[in-house]
Amino acid sequence: MWDLLDPDPGGRPGWPLHAGPLRVRAGVVTLRPVRRRDGRTWSAMRMADRSHLEPWEPTTEGSWRRTNSRAAWAAVHGSHRRAIRAGVSLPAVIELDGEYCGQLTLGGISRGPLCSGWIGYWVGSRFTGGGVATAAVALGLDHALGPVRLHRVDATVRPENAASRVVLDRCGFREEGLLRRYLHVDGAWRDHLLVARTREEHGRGAVAALVASGFAERV
Ligand code: ACO
After folding, report:
1. Which of 208, 209, 178 is CA-nearest to residue 194?
2. What lines the ligand 1 site, CB under 6 Å?
3. C-alpha 160 – ligand 1 centre gap (Å)
4. Which of 58, 108, 111, 205 qualifies as a cystine partner to 142, CB 3.0-4.6 A?
């Protein structure tokens, strides 16, 4: 039974995260591993996009300026690397036509009878509204329930985050309930919707569904 649940005990199936390409309205979306040299772009984009990102992201210790500064990247990237080595997280850069435009993380990965993880993401404001996040989440979800061999992927989203709810819905996530005062975000404990998808309900996958609906095209 344990072989069935975790066919590669101690291994890290699905590492590193490379997925796509997938064409949507905005252009061609791919996922690739985060690199040390992404720091400059990461910081510039997040500094410029504070008002776009802060209402939805978990509170961190320290000011936005400090935690998203160029100097903070070494620690952020170091924690990515530790989590990758431990097999608990797969952080990825979302690229649009080869350009860094945001990040997606498969995190909280656990094996054994839980065999699950969560997905989270952000896209820089100048790249939004063209299907980028939908493509990225579909690619990430298929990777998680495919090569990473998870049984379940969940996500939490503030009910007010209309754009993100559209993304999750289009990728086939099913709503499971409301988590009251679940996470500290933007100055207060905020309710979050819990959504999930398991392998049994994933069929031919999220990318295949986007392609079948005409939302995306394989390239
Ligand atoms: N009401 C209804 N629909 C909306 C609204 C709104 N206020 N705003 C946007 N939408 C729609 C868009 O029109 C689009 O639908 P369409 O394809 O029919 O036009 C859809 O929501 C968004 O889909 P995408 O274009 O694939 O998403 P995008 O690339 O714009 O990225 C995202 C969306 C990730 C939410 C981006 O705005 C962002 O990074 N926001 C800040 C950070 C954030 O919220 N991250 C997600 C946190 S929740 C989580 O990680 C599980």
Report:
1. 178
2. 52-53, 56, 120-123, 128-134, 155, 157, 161-164, 166-167
3. 11
4. 205
SS3 of residue 215 by DSSP:
coil
Q: Report how far ligand 1's centroid is from the alpha carbon of 122 (Å).
A: 9
Closest CA to 20 of 211, 213, 165, 202: 211
Q: Is the whole-model pTM more than 0.90? A: yes
Which residue ranges form the domains of the chain, and what is each CATH number? 2-6+14-151+210-218 (3.40.630.30)
Q: How remote is the CA of residue 164 from the centroid of ligand 1, in Å? A: 4
Atom of ligand 1 nearest to the CA of 135: 26
Residue range 145-204, pLDDT digits in tens: 999 999 999 999 999 999 999 999 999 999 999 999 999 999 999 999 999 999 999 999
